[in-house]
Amino acid sequence: MARRIVLVLLTLWLVSLGVFAVSELLPGDVAIFILGQQATPETLAVLRAQLGLNVPAPERYVEWLFGFIRGDWGKSLALQVPITDLVLSRMANSFVLAGIAFIITVPLSIGAGLLAALRQGRLTDRLISLIGISGLAIPEFVSGVVLILLFSLTLRIAPASAQIPTGASPLSVLPALILPAFTLALTLFAYISRMTRASAVEVLSSDYVRAAFLKGLPTSKVITRHVLRNALLPTITVIGAQIGWLVGGLVVVEHLFGYPGLGDLLLFAALNKDIPLLEACVMVVASVYMLANLGTELLFGVLNPRIRYA
Amino acid sequence: MSGPLLEVENLSVAYGSTPAVRGVSFEVARGEAYGLVGESGSGKSTLAMALVRYLATGGHVTGGAIRFDGKDLLALDAAALREFRGRRAAVVYQNPAAALDPSMRVGDQVAEAFSAHSRLSTKEARRKALEALQQVKLPDPRSVYDRYPHQLSGGMQQRVVIATALAGGPDLLILDEPTTGLDATVEAAILRLLADLRRDLGVTVVLISHNLAVVASVCDRVGVLYAGRLVEQGRVGDVFAAPAHPYTRGLLASLPGEHSRKGTRPLHAIPGTALSAAVHLPGCAFAPRCEFVRAECTAAEPPLLSVRAARSSRCYFADEVLATPIRHSPDHLEGTAQYPAAGGTQLLTLSDAQKTFNVSGGRVHAVDGVTLEVPSGVTVGLVGESGSGKSTLARIIAGLEPLDSGTLEWRGQPLERSVERRPREVLRELQMVFQDPDSTLNPRHSVGKLLERSIRQLTGLDARARRSRAADLLAAVDMDARYLGARPSELSGGQRQRVAIARAFAGSPALVLCDEPTSALDASVQATILNLLARLQSEQGSAYLFISHDIDVVRYLADIVGVMYRGRLMQLGSAAPVFDGGPRHPYTQVLLSGSALEGEAEQTGGCPFQASCPRKLGAICETQVPPWRETSDGGGILCHIPLEELT
Amino acid sequence: MPDSLVADRPAQLQTDSGLDIQSVAERFGSTGLVPLLQGVRRSPTALVGVLLLLAWAVCAIAWPLLAPYDPNQFHTAARLQPPSAQFWFGTDQFGRDVFSRVLAGSRDILIVAPLATLVGIGCGTCLGLVAGFYRGVSSEAVLRIMDAVMAFPIVTLSLLVVAMLGPSVVNVILVIGLVFTPRVARVVYASTLSVRDLNYIAAARLRGESSTYILFGEILPTITAPIIVEATVRVGYAVFASATLSFLGLGIPPPAADWGLQIADARTFLQSAPWTVLFPALAIASLVVGVNLVSDGLQGTRTRSS
Fold first, then answer.
1. Rounded to a whole number, what is the distance in Å from the CA of C195 to chain A's nearest CA?
2. pTM score, two decimals?
3. Omega of the bond prior to B340 within 30 degrees of 0, cis?
4. What is the ipTM score, two decimals?
5. How far is CA B175 from CA B162, B164, B211, B555, in A?
6. Neighboring chain B residues of C204 at a CB cutoff of 8 Å
7. What is the pLDDT of residue C25?
8. Does B529 touch chain A (CB under 8 A)?
């Protein structure tokens, strides 16, 4: 357990190295990269001073890293505002959207996966798998666009844009969140229902389920007492991985619907070569992902008797 | 209420269109224990599952009837079937760990079996479950109740499964290979439990196994299955003393028993390979392999004829078979070598070998101060149960695992502990044959390729010489050269092991480590392999370090025998005195007599065997490590009891 | 008998596609390509997938022959026209024929996706083999670095790198390959672990084989089945990722007839001229669905368990 936490911290450190290396070392001369070839020496000098580029890279890295840990994430080049508050508020927005998608989808997908496993090979199974494969195959921007087309422009049920007036809470525009959440939900559903189905199928063919039937237990008892617990355990790890994906996959959905979340901010930083902002956003995203994975690993360890009572 | 409890009449079962059981008929009387013996492909497992109508996908009954207490089983509807299962009949399968839900406490699973058939409160069910755990002789039922399956040993798991099976108070208990995979001593304990339960509860038992000894110890009557057909039936004692069917006879003759020894009294393997039920021959299914075969045998399949009282056999010449005894000669048998080998060179010397593993919950001394030598041309047999460290020892000698401390010498020179550092000369001479035939050959390489690869690495032969040597190696293991192009998936388990042996002999080794090479094979196939190993030894003069959990196999092959328990060598000496009247360590005695061992206590400082030892002296065994008492042949016994009292 | 998923298989061994390496290996018995192809042949859904892929492959190769118009040609008089006999899929805001653009777009994506997958598979396989076979520090180091790369969700990492390197076909291939490497490495690592302690590897060590031979001559041939399955799954992701990057403006630069780019361009006209978005979207969807059907067929997830 302690070992896991140490590993996560180690990986986060490697991540920070990677982020720094890519954003500040990869483009060669960062100042020219940001301002372009035509920039005058004076503007370059100003930018270099602002970014602290005159200091050697290792020192810059350490300062940046400690600043990050302290919570001081610098100032955005493009927006000229402190990054910390900006990122945190955007992150909160993203969590709301992701949270909604999650809450709707997870129970639904688990149920669908179990149902598909119980009716394996029959029509219900094929239907569920079909929906699953569509969610898996179709990129979010495609499904998002189709959903907008369908529900917003044609049927006029939900708004196409999910922009929030500055300062307001995302919950104030709840109806606007329906379509983006739905788009996310499709992909989530695909992964979770597939995994649940696969593990339920394996559990159903196990010896102990056979033993349960041979004890004379009715099917309903066999499912609730034996199948559920064992089939859902591996699903937890997939759900954990999906949390991380959500954080990243939000980029497309937020961009498509104009939702002011972390993903949209990340894209903005990338397109505008706003290096401090980009670094901060990526670090935050990576950290959330890793923590989510750690959380699910720990949960798995607690729920799995073989690990808990090794 | 008279009449048999179970009647199987002309039952045929198939998977899709492939038959698995053909026209099997037998009856089991109330309170009786009936055994079904068969090797792989005989259809015994299918039969077991058919009896409770839980056949795998595609399985269906194609003919005949099953009657339980007079009622037609095949006509039961779902509700009646549920009532039948658990309440009237229960099944215990082979792999106890798999039969228990890994995420539910063991006691709850037993309690569940009770509440499946009667309305019980949780407390009531729990109480009954505790009683059941006690009835199967589990130590400390309360603490076992709260454990998860992975926290119990194999033997304990099987007891829990038996408790679950008996919970519904069934009239019929079906056991399908219940002790396969368990150590011999644990197996003996489970079988004793079964005998006690039969006596106390009066339950009727159907026991299915490939292991004749297991069936002999539990059952009253036995039926022998071959290729999906019942070929012989009768009382256990009668059938095993004087079989009436050539297949039964062949099975018995292929088992290494008390009197078989390599060289002087070889095993009689049944030629050919086992037929599966899927194949339909016009005549007797066993005819292609039978030594009594005549013209009538291939013309029409013999019916199950009654040959004596309560004895039947599916053979036209059953009387002749009955009259021909299996060769058991009480002659005095000599071993082929003395320990230490007079005049022979010491190939391998191992001195005070230590190997410890760190596992969750502490350190395990897999090998704890083992000292032994392997002279050239001799078979050293190492016998021990699971956890004895014998496989680890083999891997250490092979260089696959590093030794923690101790010395390892080859021909008097220090031997590299890591196989990657050994020179080609040593590799050529020191080879290994592994246990599991399924993982011993690379599935993507053809037989010819893998043999040539070994030849190439171990010898300096050129391409053409390698090809011809590969064919020679196959011939030496009695396989035709056409198998050179075959992939392992096309070979049977026995054939794969033969290729593995051929591979080991590629460089004419001086010592071959054999790590349970026949444990995963059917008895008749095992006989072939053991004979092969003995023959190769006499032809090429190679030595073996032969490891097995089966003391009968070791007795057959070994010139020198070592007995291991929990990482320590408890006894080492020439085979003849150990098996025929010399001093024996108490553990050796337990293994030889097939007794049960109870108790799996923690390791204390003294003798590792003290917790289970039937001849434990007292506190001295717990606190002091026993001395190594040297025997007259240069071997020794690790025990506090003096040698004179161990004879 | 697989002793259920509650076995102490670490959470890491599940890939993010949920591919269960152990059961794939068991199902195919590590015997390689032929049984895989047979599996595809037996499954009707997989055949549909193969047909879809073939259709698109033909498009990618022969689109200059099949397209009625030059995809970059402006028909200024016929801007934003709905589908008609003249322009089967209508025209976009510059008057370009959408049908021709859709056909043309297949080539770029069918070059990028397989190449990116190859990069990922190549690097990932080597790393996974090494990490799985050698124990100790070097293996741990590889795994930690792979974890670090995987800590970035796909889009995030691609964003980061392409933003720095600039959008181009080569960069997109490299980035997607980079993103895939750790995921492929995980699959190969898990497969190598499951094979590493088998007896035929011990036999190879016992006859003095070099580590390189053991990795590539003994282990690799037996784990080709999971690798191939993973490769087909990755191709789907590659299409996905490439289109997403283009949509976000970080992929193949304009005026390439890239589908993601087309959708991004035409977003503003979603209400007035939905066909400009719909047809590229359907193209992407059908390609990814085709790839997924094939990989599903290989995995046998649709077939009834025996």
1. 22
2. 0.83
3. yes
4. 0.82
5. 9, 13, 13, 30
6. 442
7. 47
8. no
